[in-house]
Specification:
There is one protein chain. The chain is mainly alpha-helical. Helix content is 76%, strand content 0%.
Length: 70
């Protein structure tokens, strides 16, 4: 499991590095972690889960738009 997680992290890091190399590092490409952190600080597990899901969906959509356009 540890090796699989390291591979996911490395692949993700490479994809984001390539994305930013191709597109620059505009502010509109960054998905804030503030909403996630605020929910964790409030100990609101449901809000934290929802914020993480929105964050991941936004990230997925952004990567798909560049690497797998429809």
């Amino acid at each position: 499991l540890s090796r699989a997680l390291v591979n996911v992290l490395l692949t993700s890091s490479r994809m984001w590095a390539l994305f930013f190399r191709l597109n620059g590092a505009g502010d509109n490409y960054y998905f804030s972690h503030d909403e996630i952190l605020d929910a964790v600080r409030r100990r609101d597990a449901d809000a934290a889960q929802a914020a993480v899901e929105r964050h991941l969906e936004g990230s997925r959509n952004l990567l798909r738009s560049v690497f797998w356009p429809e």
